[in-house]
Hints:
The structure holds 2 protein chains of 2 kinds.
Chain A: E1 5-6, H1 10-15, E2 19-23, E3 26-31, H2 35-44, E4 46-50, E5 55-60, E6 84-90, E7 96-106, E8 109-114, H3 119-129, E9 136-138, E10 143-149, H4 153-161, E11 173-178, E12 181-186, E13 195-201, H5 205-213, E14 218-220, H6 223-232, H7 266-275, E15 280-286, E16 297-300, E17 303-314, E18 319-326, E19 336-341, E20 344-351
Parallel strand pairs in A: 1-3, 4-14
Antiparallel strand pairs in A: 2-3, 4-10, 5-8, 5-9, 6-7, 7-8, 10-13, 11-12, 12-13, 15-18, 15-20, 16-17, 16-19, 17-18, 19-20
Helix pairs in contact in A: 2-6
Chain B: E1 3-5, E2 10-15, E3 18-23, H1 25-31, E4 34-38, E5 45-46, E6 51-57, E7 61-65, E8 70-75, H2 85-88, E9 97-100, E10 111-112, H3 113-121
Antiparallel strand pairs in B: 1-2, 1-10, 2-3, 3-9, 4-6, 5-8, 6-7, 8-9
Amino acid sequence: MEDLKATPLQAHHEGLKALMAPFGGWLMPIQYEGIIAEHRWCREKAALFDICHMGEFRFRGDIQAGGLEDVFTFSVKGIPIGRSRYGFLLNPSGGVIDDLIVFRLAEDEVMIVVNAATAPNDFKVIASRLKEPAQLVDISVQTGKLDLQGPLSREVLVEHLGSELGALPFFKFTRTRVLGEDAIVSRTGYTGELGYEIFLPSGKTAELWELLLKDPRVAPAGLGARDLLRLEMGYSLYGNDIDEKISPIAAGLTAFVNLDKDFVGKDALLKERETGPENVKVAFRVDSRRSPRHFYEILHQGAQVGMVTSGAFSPMLSCGIGMGYVKPEAAALGTRLTIKHERVEMEAQVVELPFYTGGSLRA
Amino acid sequence: MAKFFTKEHEWVEMDGAQAIVGISEHAAHELGDITFVELPKIGKSVKQFDTLAGIESVKAASDIYAPVSGKVAQVNDKLEDAPELVNQGAESEGWICRLEGVDASELGALLDAAAYAKYLEGL
């Protein structure tokens, strides 16, 4: 029996009769009322997600001398204080150990937010690349995290947590007080909607959850809705769309890689840039309401050219959408593909990302 | 006429010489939001417990098996644009198809409502 970790909100989820399931070593809510209803609520109002399972590390020290500057695919020194940046921790072959966000808290202090399942390994890898490993501390247990996402999230947040939060620009954060405690409120998220991520002491998470859920504009949403929301935006899911065998070049995520600086895996990426990746990520739209699913085969002109890594029915587009890796010759926009699994077959076409463009992300 | 159920969670109800077929309320609830129903072709012949149709939800794709043998006489084509009807009434407006040429004696291999309810308790 897997030993699953619980967030501080487990009793709250059970009280809401959430469907709970293992995810990344944690017992997490998949849905409350229903995945599509929660997805729609996030696109139209404000959805509240328990994200306490994600990992947080704090680094204190000289970023350059301490070795942190060369750990990620982007420059940590180059992040202005009060801003955050998305990028990767790579292995020497250029594969993605994790995708993560670094928050620049001060000249000599950052917070690193990583995926739940990869957190223990991330910590070991990052610490091993620092000159002084003790500069890195795992603060996951004491840190709670709630995401409030949706077009009404700003007005909800301003009303309950303070008017100064209303001026927060996209991808910027502020260190503030929430429920009397030191907290970080960041205008980030993974849904394609205007939204905020709130980091606060884990002991206060339940109080904030209850406060926000009392607001009729807010409803809880589970990982099922979160997966649909991120897929409609074409965002990668670690473990499905990216992993240690896939490079940011193959994944089409070179915008988050700075080849002008040093980092582990850079040489492999430079080489791959010259030769071209063996397989590349594509996004495709299905001609019907059928859902492509992880591991379904991708065929082009009758031959298998790849595999689906993420797929679902898109409530906003009313059709199946997906992402996967294919041979480069089948990756051009407009290419017709067949998605196949056992007796299920669906026709699809390679399209641009994001699938859904009507979100309030930058509102 | 009473409904009979399979252990795979289909139901069947005789309407004159035809059998109306669907999935149970329990199955619809377990599947979650239904997003697509692969309706069988009219005229298709199936044997009892063979694959009849397909159904997809946000969570999973599943086969629907024929509770009795027969030939597909009619399909619920409202499900093409509104598969959510299965969530709204799996044992009523969310029916899947009608079969003709049915041998009613095959109903004996199925569970009646009381036996199905007991079967669900044991799951």
